[in-house]
Each structure stands twice: as structure tokens, then as C-alpha cells.
Amino acid sequence: MDFEEDIESILYIAREISVYRIPPLKANEGHRANEWGDLAKPLWKGRLRIIETSKGVSLQFEDAQTGELFAKAEYHPTRPSVEAVLDSSRYFVVRVEDDGKKAYIGIGFAERTDSFDFNVALQDYEKRYKASLSPPSTSSDSPSPHMPAGPKKDYSLKEGQTFSIAIPGRAKAALGGNLFGLETGSSESKAGSGGGGGGFPLLPPPPSASKRQ
């Protein structure tokens, strides 16, 4: 009897994740975790696994002890089912499907490192998927990078030969001068050139199971 087994590859595991019921998305606005109510009281807690098979990739929300499936979301790079919120790097919105019905849930990671690894896992899969759609070109019209394009020209200086570089506001400096010692700005201007980047607001992380009483 012919038997073919579909091999599963686990791309990512989050040991603990919180799931939230979220309000409808407002027109022309993104999702915000601070609008989900009390983040310390999630709808469900469990684990998340990103699994790849020959059919594609799926996000599976499972009971951490029994492995019972709570929800499942298919992930495809051309129609992503995961969206980051606008006010935190630890919370996301996921589109889940069940018997043709679609729903949106919020998910939260207790640690930023977990949400970072979650993002990286999805991005790595997306890169591999796009690379599989555009294999390297083997056209004979393209010149080989290993073949010389033509005779090489000699640009080296002959003995006793020099050339000059014109620097605005300064006298010409001959080659061999202190070109790398030229100042590019005062210490005050360099110190004031650094800018402060904005970051995500510090929303509270989902409650950890180890901290609950």
C-alpha cells in the first residue's frame, strides 16, 4: 500500500502566549493593544507553534499541557494573516479561520525577545518563499562574472608623477599629504548631530503563568 507522510518542520515555538478578544478595527486606523481592555486578563493562554509542511505554513495555538488545538491561522506571504499593532512590539493581530469562518484575535508575548523571534521566523519563511519563485537566471546573454570584460588599464602613478585634489576653501593638497587628517566638523557639531529615535510606548506585558497567584 502506498503511503506518503507529510513532514512537519517547526519554525518557531512560544512556550507562553496570551490571546485577547479585540474590538472591530476603526476605519483608516491600525490596531492598538491599549484598546483591548485589561491586558492582564487574556481570553486564553497557551503556546504557539509555527509549522511548515508541503502545503504551507500555519500558526497553531495549542494547550501547553495537552496539545489541544485552540485556533489555527494559515500564513501566506501574499496575503499575510499577521499584523503588528501600532503601540507595542509585543502585541499582534492574527486572522484565524474555522470552517470557512474568519475571526481576528489579539496575541501578546511576555518578552520582547519572543516577539522578535516570532517576527524573524515569519520573515525568514517569506524570504525563502520569494526566492523559490525567482530562481537564478541562466541566460547565455548575460556576461559571466568570471570572464574578463576587456583589457585592464594601468592607473598607477609612474615614478616622479603626482596629481592634485581640489578642496573648496583650501589650497590644493598634493597626493601624499595629510588627506585623512582633514577635519570634517567641530566637536560641538559632531556631538549635536546625534538624534534620538522614537520607540514603542511601554505597554505592560501579558501576565506570565509563573507570576499568577
From TrEMBL:
Region of interest (Disordered), residue spans: 131-155, 183-213
NECAP PHear domain boundaries: 7-167
GO biological process assignments: endocytosis
GO cellular component: clathrin vesicle coat
Pro residues biased stretches: 202-213
Source organism, top-level taxon: Eukaryota
Sequence ranges of Low complexity compositional bias: 132-144
SUPFAM superfamilies given in the database record: PH domain-like (SSF50729)
Record-given protein name: NECAP PHear domain-containing protein
